[in-house]
Structure formats: C-alpha cells, structure tokens
Specification:
Distance between the termini of chain A: 37 Å
Structural class of chain A: mainly beta
Distance between the termini of chain B: 36 Å
Order of helices and strands of chain B: EEEEEEEEEEE
Oligomer: heterodimer
Radius of gyration of chain B: 13 Å
Shape of chain A: globular
Structural class of chain B: mainly beta
Largest interface: A-B, 26 and 29 residues
Number of strands of chain B: 11
Number of strands of chain A: 11
Amino acid sequence: SQQGEEDPQALSIQEGENATMNCSYKTSINNLQWYRQNSGRGLVHLILIRSNEREKHSGRLRVTLDTSKKSSSLLITASRAADTASYFCATDGAGNTGKLIFGQGTTLQVKP
Amino acid sequence: DTEVTQTPKHLVMGMTNKKSLKCEQHMGHRAMYWYKQKAKKPPELMFVYSYEKLSINESVPSRFSPECPNSSLLNLHLHALQPEDSALYLCASSPLGDYGYTFGSGTRLTVV
C-alpha cells in the first residue's frame, strides 16, 4: 500500500512561474524525500528532510515538513521547461526500516 | 562512480521463460532495493537487502527471486511470469541511515 497522497495530480505552468506540490502521509516517519522522474525512467533524488526539520533549501527547491499535519510541500521557483517531469514524495518510516514508500506523484508541465 | 547500472534496459520474455535482471553499484552502499513501477503509478517496493542479506520482502510472489551475490551486485531472477508482471523494474542503492537513494534507469519488462 502507498503511504502518501500528492496534490495536485497534474500541474501546468508557464516558464518562470513557481510550482508547488503537496504531499500527505499517514504514519510516523524518519525522513521524507522528494524525487523527480523523467519519461518513466529512473528516479533522481532531489532533497531529504528529516522528521525534526521544518524547512530545507537546495538551489531553486524549497521543502517544508509539518509532522503535526503529516504533510510536506515542494516549491520549485523560477521554473524551466527542463523541470517538466513527475515528482514523487517518499517516506522512510520511523525506526530506519529501509522501507521507502512513494506517494502517487504530481505530473508537472512547464510550458516555454 | 556515482551510478547504479541496470541491465538489460529492455526485456521481452514468454511466460515459460527464465530470465534475470542485473543491478550493479560501486558506491559502497550497503543497502540495495528492487522496485516495480507500472505506467502512471508510483514505484512499489519489492525487496530490500541490507549488508547483502534480504531484510524485507513485500509479499512478492515466488516467481520473483532476488539474489545478492556480493555488496555491489543485485539480481532479480524471473520465472513463469504473467502478462500483468509487465512493468518497469527499478534497482536502487543507498548508504544506511538518512540518505537519499540512487536509482538505476530501470529494465522495461514485457511478458508475452
């Protein structure tokens, strides 16, 4: 069974705009990660946020985590056509179980 | 070397065939994973190996048989598969602890 629900399922924006994707999960976590996938091939790790962190930045990416609401958001600023991809959140359950469980994903289209 | 290499990239097999998928990494990661991904769905965890021992089997049918010959290699042996097993099979590796996973580009399997 999948841990996370993502919202929206699909997002279409113009180049230069910001894109925000949300992720909710059900159980306690050790960390939450975001991945990008282009054209149904391998996933690329973007950023990891630990359960005791509230916000993290990496380049044009900003991730927030609210463990009381069991939710996270990924903000991509100043989007580019090359950001067009599917984005997944994934949760690593409490206790370092090694079970990284993926949410349903958001498909982002950035129009030039 | 910062890659996970999966071979073959594409595989078509009959329901009576036996085939193997191979995954290799030379990053010294002690955890390796097999995921299955159907079209427009998130990756689903199948198996986790930690220190070359199987630590998690997500109730995968016995027609899928994983093997970890050494710390750099992970195989997935396939036998008597069904057409519904057609999917993208992804291998990943990671250090143990709060780290992101490195994914291979996957093997696209078609069972006829």
